[in-house]
Write a structure and sequence with these properties.
With 311 residues, the chain is an alpha/beta fold. Helix content is 41%, strand content 13%.
Amino acid sequence: MDGVLSSGPRREFVGYAGNPPSIQWKDGALLAVNLVINYEEGAEYNIPDDGVNDSWGEYTFQYGPETRDLGTEMHYEFGSRVGIWRLARLFDEHNIDVTFNACALALERNPPLCEWLKSRNHDILGHGYRWYGPDNEIGAKMTREDERAEIQRALQSFQKTMGHRPKGWMVRSFPTLHTRELLVEEGGFIYDSDSTNDELPYFVKTLNKPFLVVPYTKVYNDTRYLINPTYSTPRFFFETLKMGLDYMLGEARQARAGRMMSVGIHPRWSGQATRTAAIRDFIEYALSQEGVQFVRRIDIAEQWIAAFVGR
């Protein structure tokens, strides 16, 4: 039995059955590494804006609405005021393209960052107007109509701040039951990254239309500075990334086919100097390996669609 029927995407346990399709990345790269900068600072929930505190700061507990959590608010502000610029300088120094998984309100509240982004080649992955998702009090109460309005408001905001709308989408932690259908209904999206069940893109059918999923990761991710088992030193994060890259690159060389590695980082965590050092060391190590290339998420999506749509 498949279990109790419910709305939302069907579960799929087979995938590529150990035989993933052969993709040849641009310029002959074997491993496409995509750094995803989760830019949420200013779009998180907080007492002044919403009457509730958010979490995902520098500690795991959450105050109730009777206490304004200035500590968490200031932790997010550090990510916007300092952390994002430290990371930006690092990307400029090494001349690599990354993906900004950005909340629209966070960009509205940091115009200098919008100007910097418009002068660079990085791409934008839509992360909501607010940093919404079903893992928090407000998002859990969001109806299908509420989420549709959230997506449309975000698109209008991105158009105003960046001059264009994103072609991909990823919500907080995990999607609602309606997210993917709403993206297809809206149109203009070619992929989402609301899945962590694979390491390569794959197509699903949504509203009887093929739609691309470019999976994300919770493993190669600096959230481990917060949640157990935590990284007691940034060297552990670097070692995690290095070992993952080495293994995937070995698989790609053996198969003579491309692989993809996503890395999730957050300015409020990895923008701290000691933790930025781990990102720097990983970038420098990756660039020293033959066959590794840093790419944007939109590049991965478009190359996959060009290679496999209609086959």
